[in-house]
Specification:
The complex is a heterodimer. By secondary structure, chain A is an alpha/beta fold. In chain A, 38% of the residues lie in helices and 22% in strands. Chain A contains 13 helices and 16 strands. In chain B, α3 crosses α4. The chains are: A alpha/beta, B alpha/beta.
C-alpha cells in the first residue's frame, strides 16, 4: 500500500533511490544536499548496500563510476561547488558510457555563493559543464510526488541509455518538508538491464540509435574501458572514421529516443494565450499564479518542463502554433530563456521573469508579470 | 608461451613508450606476479590515471580501466567496495599519484582499502614532454624548471607512513626479480599497499640532465638506491640524497576497509534497525 507522509525533499530523493535499486552511494557533505548522504549512511548498511563518504566530490563521482562498472547502481548528491568539481568525471561517464545518477541541489552562486538559498542557476552547467561534445539527460521535478517519480526515472534512464543522468533540485525542494505519497513497490517501473553476456571484445559495437548493452567487469571476459576516444573494442583510437562513428553512437542513443526521455506537464494550455514556461520551485509559484489568472479571466497556461535536457523542443514548438506569448520564469539571470527564444518563432512575444537573489517567486509576483504581459 | 604471457594483451601492442623505458619492465613484473599467484584474469581489474603509466592497463589481458588524471584511486575505491573479493590494482605515475592525485593517495592510505598501488616514480611528467613533478629531485633541469628545480620533493615512504598506509615498499626497474617479489607480496597483503618503483625517463628527464641513454640513467638509479640495511648504517647527512629499497611498512593487524564495512558495520546496522525504515 502506498504511504502518505511528511518528508523532506532530500529524504524523498534518498527513499526513491533505494526503491529504484540504488545500492551504492559515495558523496561529500555539502549544504543543502547533505541529508541524502546522511540518510543513505544510516539505511544502506541495513540493506547490505554500500555507503562511503569520500574525500571530495571528484572522488565521490569517481567511486560511483567504478562501482557502476562493477555492476552497481550508484548515486551521488551535491550542490553547486561540488557539482563544479564533478564536471570532469561527468565527461568520463559519458565517454565510457557508464550509468550514474548525480543529484545537484542547486544553491545561490557563483562560487560559494549562498549555501542556504535556492537558485536555478546550474541549468546550463548541467548541459555544458563538462568539456567536449556530449549527450546529457537532466531532470527537474517541482512537486513532492514528482521528486519520487523523477528520481526513480533518473535511475531507469541511466540504466537504459548508459549515460550519466543529472537530477536537479533546488534548496527549497531539497530542504522543505512536504506532504508526499510514497507509492507501493511494484506500482512503478524499475528498469534493470539483464546482464549482457560479453562474448567478444566488440563491447561498444551497435547500430546507430540502439541502446548500448550493459558493459561491466567480471563476466568472464576481461574488457577494457577507456576515458580516451576508443573504438568498438574500447581500445584507444584517434582514427577519424572511428571517432566519427563513436561520437554519433553516443549522441544518437539519446537523440533518437527523445519520446522516451522527454517529459513535461501542461496546465491550462489548451486555449492559453499566455504561456508560462517554468520548472522546479519556480513552477510551483507559476502554477498558483496561472490558476488565479484563470479565475480573473486571463487565459494563462503553464508548461512545466520535467526533462530539462534534452530540451522539450518539439512539444514547445507545437504549443507556439497557437500560443503567441511566452513568459519564462526562472531563478537565475537568464539561462533557459535562451532555449525558449531559440525555438520560438518570430511572431511569438517573449518575456521573462528572472531573479537570482535567493528569493523564490511568489504566486503574486508571477501573476503580476502575467497580467502585465497579457495586456 | 611463458605462463605470465596470458596476462598480456599482445593485440594492443605496440606500446607508446620510448625505447628503453622502465615501464616495460614494470608491465612484465606485474604480469609475472599475477602468474605466480595463478590468478584468473577476470578476477583482476587494473586501473590507471593519465600519463605514460596511464596507458599500461591497455596491455594487460585482465579487466582494465583507463581513467582521468590523478583519480584512478577513486575509481578503484568504487570497484573494490562493489566487489571486495577482486584484486584491484592501480598503476600511477609520480605526477598522477602525488600531485593531482595526492589527496586521493593519502585518503586511500588512511582508509586502508585493499587496493594495490604501483607508483611509478620516474621524477618527471613524461607524456606531456618533461615538466617538473613533485618527485623531481632538487636542482634538476626540466621543461618548466629551465634554471633548476627549487622545490623539495616528496619522500613517498615518509608521506605514506605518516598517512598510515599498511604496506609501503620501494624497488627499482633494475631489479626485475626483486620487483616481482615485492609486487607479489603487496598483492598478498590485505589492506592498502603502495610499491614505489624507481624508473628511468632518459628521454624527458635524463636528456636534460646529462643522462640521455637508458644505460646511464639506470646506472644513476642504481647509484642513488641501496638496500635498507646499508641505508641505515649511513650517517644522516649522507642519507638525504639516497633512496632505500625494500619493504618499509607491513602492518597486518589493522583491518581492511571493505572487511570492516561488510563484516562489522553491516551486522551492527542490521541489528539496530528495521530494513529501509527511518
Amino acid at each position: 500500500m502506498s504511504q502518505r507522509k511528511v518528508l523532506q525533499g532530500n529524504i524523498i530523493v534518498a527513499k526513491a533511490a533505494l526503491a529504484a535499486g540504488c545500492d551504492f552511494f559515495a558523496g561529500y557533505p555539502i549544504t543543502p544536499s547533505s541529508e541524502i548522504a546522511q540518510y543513505m549512511s544510516k539505511e544502506m548498511p541495513k540493506m547490505e548496500r554500500t555507503f562511503i563518504q569520500m574525500e571530495d566530490e571528484i572522488a565521490s563521482l569517481g567511486a560511483c563510476i567504478g562501482a557502476s562498472l562493477a555492476g552497481r547502481k550508484p548515486l551521488t548528491a551535491t550542490s553547486g561547488p561540488g557539482f563544479s568539481l564533478m564536471q570532469e568525471h561527468i565527461g568520463m561517464a559519458v565517454m565510457a558510457e557508464v550509468p550514474v545518477v548525480i543529484v545537484n541541489v542547486m544553491r545561490g552562486g557563483p562560487s560559494t555563493g549562498m549555501p542556504t538559498k535556492p537558485a536555478q542557476a546550474d541549468m546550463m552547467q548541467a548541459r555544458w559543464g563538462t568539456h567536449g561534445d556530449h549527450p546529457i539527460i537532466a531532470l527537474y521535478p517541482a512537486f513532492s510526488d514528482e521528486i519520487f517519480s523523477e528520481t526513480v526515472r533518473a535511475f531507469n534512464l541511466a540504466e537504459k541509455y548508459w549515460n550519466p543522468v543529472i537530477l536537479l533540485l533546488d534548496e527549497v525542494l531539497g530542504k522543505a518538508h512536504m506532504d508526499v505519497e510514497i507509492p507501493e513497490p511494484g506500482s512503478y517501473e524499475v528498469f534493470w538491464e539483464k546482464t549482457h553476456e560479453i562474448k567478444d571484445l566488440n563491447i561498444y559495437d551497435r547500430k546507430l540509435g540502439e541502446n548500448p548493452p550493459r558493459i561491466d567487469f567480471f563476466h568472464g571476459y576481461p574488457i577494457h574501458i577507456d576515458s580516451l576516444e576508443h573504438d568498438a573494442h574500447g581500445w584507444p583510437s584517434f582514427d577519424a572514421k572511428t571517432v566519427d562513428k563513436m561520437q554519433k553512437l553516443r549522441m544518437q542513443k539519446i537523440y533518437q529516443n527523445l519520446d522516451d526521455i522527454i517529459k513535461y506537464k501542461e496546465y491550462f494550455m489548451d486555449d492559453a494565450e499566455v504561456m508560462v514556461f517554468s520548472f522546479g520551485i519556480s513552477a510551483r509559484g507559476a502554477l498558483a499564479a496561472v490558476k488565479t489568472a484563470r479565475e480573473q479571466g486571463i487565459k494563462a497556461g503553464l508548461f512545466q518542463a520535467l526533462t530539462i535536457w534534452p530540451f522539450p523542443r518539439a512539444a514547445l514548438q507545437e504549443r507556439f502554433k497557437k500560443t503567441k506569448k511566452v513568459l519564462t520564469v526562472e531563478m537565475n539571470m537568464g539561462q533557459m530563456k535562451y532555449e525558449v527564444e531559440r525555438i520560438a518563432p518570430c511572431d511569438v512575444e517573449k518575456q521573462t521573469l528572472l531573479r537570482a537573489n535567493g528569493m523564490p517567486f511568489s504566486p503574486a509576483e508571477v501573476l503580476d508579470a502575467i497580467k502585465e504581459f497579457a495586456k | 608461451m611463458r605462463d605470465y604471457e596470458k596476462y598480456i594483451r599482445y593485440r594492443t601492442f605496440p606500446t607508446p613508450w620510448c625505447p628503453g623505458c622502465g615501464d616495460g619492465v614494470i608491465l612484465k613484473s606485474i604480469a609475472m606476479a599475477f602468474a605466480e599467484l595463478n590468478l584468473d584474469p577476470d578476477d583482476i581489474v587494473v586501473v590507471a590515471g593519465i600519463g605514460c603509466s596511464g596507458r599500461m592497463p591497455t596491455y594487460f589481458n585482465t579487466n582494465t580501466l583507463h581513467t582521468t588524471h590523478g583519480r584512478a584511486l577513486t575509481f578503484a575505491t568504487g570497484i573494490k567496495l562493489a566487489k571486495p573479493e577482486k584484486l584491484v590494482v592501480v598503476i600511477s605515475g609520480d605526477g598522477d599519484a602525488t600531485a593531482i592525485g595526492g589527496n586521493h593517495l593519502i585518503h586511500a592510505a588512511r582508509r586502508n582499502i585493499g587496493i594495490k598501488m604501483i607508483l611509478i616514480n620516474n621524477g618527471i611528467y613524461g607524456m606531456t614532454g618533461g615538466q617538473v613533478s613533485p618527485l623531481t629531485p632538487p636542482k634538476f633541469f626540466t621543461e618548466t624548471t629551465p634554471y633548476g628545480n627549487i622545490e623539495p620533493h616528496f619522500n613517498v615512504r615518509e608521506l605514506l607512513t605518516a598517512a598510515k598506509a599498511t604496506f609501503v615498499a620501494r624497488e627499482t626497474v633494475n631489479r626485475l626479480m626483486q620487483l616481482k617479489q615485492v609486487i607479489k607480496k603487496s598483492f598478498q597483503h590485505k589492506g592498502f599497499s603502495v610499491v614505489e618503483v624507481m624508473s628511468n625517463c632518459h628521454v624527458n628527464l635524463g636528456r636534460r640532465n646529462k643522462m640521455k641513454s637508458p644505460l646511464v640513467m639506470t646506472k644513476y638509479i642504481r647509484d642513488i638506491t641501496m638496500n635498507m640495511a646499508d641505508f641505515e648504517k649511513l650517517p644522516p647527512e649522507e642519507q638525504a640524497p639516497k633512496y632505500p629499497l625494500g619493504i618499509f611498512v607491513q602492518d597486518t593487524q589493522r583491518l581492511e576497509y571493505t572487511d570492516l564495512y561488510y563484516n562489522h558495520i553491516v551486522p551492527v546496522a542490521q541489528q539496530t534497525g528495521v530494513q529501509g525504515e527511518k
